Amino acid sequence: MSRIWHLAATLAVPALRWNLRRRVRLGKEEAARLPEREGHGAARPEGRLLWLHAASVGETLAILPLLDALLARDPALSFLVTTGTATSAQLLPQRLSGELGARVIHRYVPLDVPPWVARFLDGWRPDAACLVESELWPNLLGACAARGIPTALLNARISGRSFRRWRNFGPGLIRRLLGGFSLIVPRSAEDAARLTALGARRLAPAGDLKLAADPLPADPGKLAELRAAIGARPVLLAASTHPGEEELVLAAARELAPRVPDLLTIIVPRHPERGSEIAAAAGAPRRGAGLPPGEGPAYIADTLGELGLFYRLASVALVGGSLIRHGGQNPLEAARLGCPMILGPHMENFADATAALLAAGGARQLPDAAALAGVVADMLSHPERAAGLVAGATRVVSAASDLPGRLAVALLDLLPGKAAGKA
After folding, report:
1. Contacts 24+ apart (CB under 8 A), 282-289
2. Angle, alpha carbons 190-194-200 (nearest 5°)
3. Chain segment 105-123, per-residue pLDDT in tens
């Protein structure tokens, strides 16, 4: 299987280059940085370098407290952070403090083509590599092993579907890939069981970095402006929505209008480029066009990196991706900001976090989209129930506060000439 993957990736180079150009046209890649996808662009700093790979926005946000903990224990350490999406690349510089920002270099991760991976590793020469969640690329991991680069897998997760595929079609390959890691930290006990069944042996206790992520930031001046524009109106936030959800949210808002006539429904689409389309359908002003909320019933917040503003403004929030069969977006973002939250019936992408929130009384889950208006009305008319949800959610996100420090110590142990750090 390993040889087949190696050959297939090499033969796929023309198709991969075509797809990268297509993604540029779709706004999903940066044309000027396409060479990074082939391993170009190394600019290794002096001293020890830890490489962390976070595929997308959620994983990128999850590693920020870990980076802070690592820098606190080893101020001379430099970081190479790779991601696979343009959105995460744009977001990362916004979330780095001055001191940490000076130690972090961002590149796009090379695709898993043997010469591209070799060029990347030979140029950067990381002292250790840390992959987040389920980034198991055979050529990349094999090249790390060949160069003696220690590797760690954090927030390691294996979905039921992936587990069945690996077990049925690549048991030898996945056993070898997992066996090459010096450290594996499963996201949950369920993930630990699946990883063990697939051949992982060096498993640390489970821990979810997304539970320990920092609250989404908000510019104080912009927050004050929005609060002044909204006034005392109650706010229903639909956060990180996907196609098909906006219509359901707006229908619920229309149903609520007789009971809550001053309700403002704010929609934050997961992909800001959809803002114009949503605003046209809703007849609503759009933040991406520089417009403030008006006196109308809806507002479209189609800007990047401002979700923290709107969670702070919301009276109640629906976590997007959950009214349709997408699997849900991260509910912990609302939990960390003390925002009472509603979850749709489809939260498979965050099953463990959802189960923890529901068990702690930190969220309400809908049986279907038709129930949205009634649940929102109930929460707006009974603030004590909303406060109970906030208290339960706070207990959940407080449980992993020491995780970044523990993981930082474990990762520093992988580095040559490790600095003496404190847990």
Report:
1. 282/246, 282/250
2. 120
3. 999 999 999 999 999 999 9
Q: Are residues 203 and 340 in the same domain?
A: no
State how far the Cα of 345 lies from the Cα of 321, in Å rounded to an integer: 10
Rounded to the nearest angstrom, the gap between the alpha carbon of residue 343 and the centroid of all alpha carbons in its chain is 17
Res 374 pLDDT > 50: yes
Catalytic residues: 59
Angle between helices 160-169 and 171-179 (to 10 degrees): 110
Tokens of 388: 């109970």
CA dist 356 to 208, 329, 335, 359, Å?
12, 15, 12, 5
Is residue 7 situated within a structural domain? yes
* Residue 166 structural domain: 2-208+401-412
Look up the pTM and report it.
Answer: 0.76
Q: Is 420 within a domain?
A: no
The answer on 168 and 279 residing in a single domain is no
CATH of the domain at 8: 3.40.50.11720
Residue 377's identity, in one-letter code, is A
CB 393 within 8 A of CB 343: no
Q: What CATH number is attached to the domain comprising 377?
A: 3.40.50.2000
Indicate the helix (H) or strand (E) that contains 105: strand 104-108
